[in-house]
């Protein structure tokens, strides 16, 4: 109840904004460099870190925030979200969510989830489609305009697929209603037009689905999307589990593979050599039971999928593949926020044997590089945006301490400061 009261108060009052802020940090963690420094002062000027160090002086008139008993690190980044989507579980068909809900309603859900995530410490997210009729573009615009509190948002627009979207065997008389969320594109010319369409409407990334059907894109088709997107300075993400479709994606030079549950060691090695990221969407077993318990969206039952996910993450880390955290969380669980569900993934990374500093890196600086914002975000360093979180317990000693974030800053705005609220009480 106390946390809810604090959240409601922050929503009512809005984020605290000051031109110059000085954070007195007990410990600063920079996962990109693997450094842990104590008794640091971080001076932030108009949302940018101006100086950091043990002997930095606090400028006159600066707002001083006491984080002397806290661990400060970069804000978290989720590279695979669907904030406007809540999947209807059970025996409902996959398409139910966009047959029953308007784009306006979906946008409101996106704003709600965005506010929840930024208050939980996720200062940047990449939303990979299933965003209604470009509704996530308006969510991003509302946040950027300062109308709503949320993270930095990057969006993909509509997902580009071979004919049929991610639907299967819809009767012809029903029509191609999946185009509400997908662009059918077959052959290089149609793919090039689909990429340009998404860029026109404001996409920050292009997403292809490769192996949802028994047919999939060729190397030439994928390479067309990569060529068109890269010329516009935009990365390409692909949904693929493995097999020949994954071979084609790797050969075509995409920027990230989403999921990749069936990737072989040979494929992972090629990804490492080419610098292709794995956004591994490592669903915890409890989540698989919810989403996949009734046949669901996965090819294997929950117990098999859970073991496969851990094995693939273990192998990818050992082989040195770039790993970027992505949750792909699309379900609702009573009494838990979407952020709560995202933090459940920490346990999977632990089971896969990934060291805590590497986990922190994959939840901060690595996705920042994938999103092409690594010169702005993902580090606690001079010249970087002050996208910062603080925690009252060491996340390097126990990564589960990330669940206890009690301070969030995004640029020039202090989104959340439970310490100040506690002091007033």
Summarize the structure.
It contains 15 helices and 18 strands.
Give the mean pLDDT: 92
Strand content bin:
15-25%
Largest sheet: 8 strands, mixed
Share of helix among residues? Answer: 25-40%
Distance between the termini: 15 Å
Q: Write down the overall geometry.
A: globular
Q: What structural class do you assign from the helix and strand content?
A: alpha/beta
Q: Over all CA atoms, what is the radius of gyration?
A: 21 Å
Specify the number of helices: 15
User: How many β-strand runs?
Assistant: 18
Task: Kindly report the oligomeric state of this protein.
Answer: single chain
Task: Please give the order of strands in the largest beta sheet.
Answer: 1-18-17-16-5-2-3-4
Low-confidence stretches: 1-13
Would you kindly provide a written description of the structure presented here, covering whatever features stand out?
- This protein is α/β, with parallel strands linked by helices and 425 residues long.
- It is built from 15 helices and 18 strands.
- The strands form 4 sheets. Strands 1-18-17-16-5-2-3-4 form an 8-stranded mixed sheet. It has a 5-stranded parallel sheet with strand order 11-12-13-14-15. It has a 3-stranded parallel sheet with strand order 6-7-8.
- The N terminus is likely disordered.
């Amino acid at each position: 109840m106390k946390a809810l009261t604090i959240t409601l108060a922050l929503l009512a009052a809005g984020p605290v904004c000051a031109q110059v802020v000085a954070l007195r940090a007990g410990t600063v963690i920079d996962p990109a460099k693997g450094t842990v420094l104590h008794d640091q002062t971080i001076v932030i000027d108009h949302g940018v870190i101006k100086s950091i160090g043990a002997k930095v002086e606090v400028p006159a008139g600066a707002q001083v925030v006491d984080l002397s008993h806290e661990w400060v690190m970069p804000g978290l980044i989720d590279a695979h979200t669907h904030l406007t989507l809540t999947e209807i579980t059970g025996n409902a068909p996959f398409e139910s969510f966009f047959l029953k809900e308007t784009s306006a309603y979906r946008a409101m859900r996106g704003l709600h989830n965005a506010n929840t995530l930024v208050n939980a410490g996720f200062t940047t997210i990449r939303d990979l489609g299933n965003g209604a009729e470009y509704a996530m573009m308006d969510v991003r615009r509302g946040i950027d305009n300062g109308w709503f509190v949320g993270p930095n948002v990057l969006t993909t627009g509509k997902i580009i697929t071979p004919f049929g979207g991610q639907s299967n065997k819809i009767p012809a008389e029903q029509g191609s209603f999946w185009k509400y969320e997908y662009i059918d594109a077959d052959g290089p010319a149609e793919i090039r037009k689909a990429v340009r369409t998404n860029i026109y409407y404001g996409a920050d990334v292009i997403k292809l689905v490769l192996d949802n059907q028994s047919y999939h894109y060729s190397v030439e088709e994928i390479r067309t999307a990569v060529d068109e997107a890269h010329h516009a300075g935009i990365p390409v993400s692909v949904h693929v589990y493995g097999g020949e479709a994954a071979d084609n994606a790797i050969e075509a030079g995409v920027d990230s593979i989403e999921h990749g549950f069936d990737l072989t060691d040979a494929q992972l090695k090629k990804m490492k050599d080419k610098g292709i990221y794995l956004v591994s969407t490592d669903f915890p077993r409890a989540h698989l039971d919810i989403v996949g318990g009734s046949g669901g969206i996965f090819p294997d039952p929950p117990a098999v999928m859970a073991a496969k996910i851990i094995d693939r993450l273990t192998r990818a880390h050992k082989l040195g593949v770039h790993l970027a955290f992505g949750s792909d969380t699309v379900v609702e669980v009573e009494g838990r926020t979407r952020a709560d569900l995202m933090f459940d993934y920490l346990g999977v990374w632990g089971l896969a044997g990934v060291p805590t500093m590497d986990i922190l890196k994959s939840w901060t600086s690595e996705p920042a590089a994938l999103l092409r914002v690594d010169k702005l975000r993902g580090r606690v360093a001079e010249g970087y945006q002050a996208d910062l979180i603080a925690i009252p317990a060491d996340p390097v000693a126990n990564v589960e301490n990330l669940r206890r974030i009690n301070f969030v800053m995004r640029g020039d705005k202090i989104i959340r400061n439970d310490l100040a609220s506690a002091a007033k009480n």
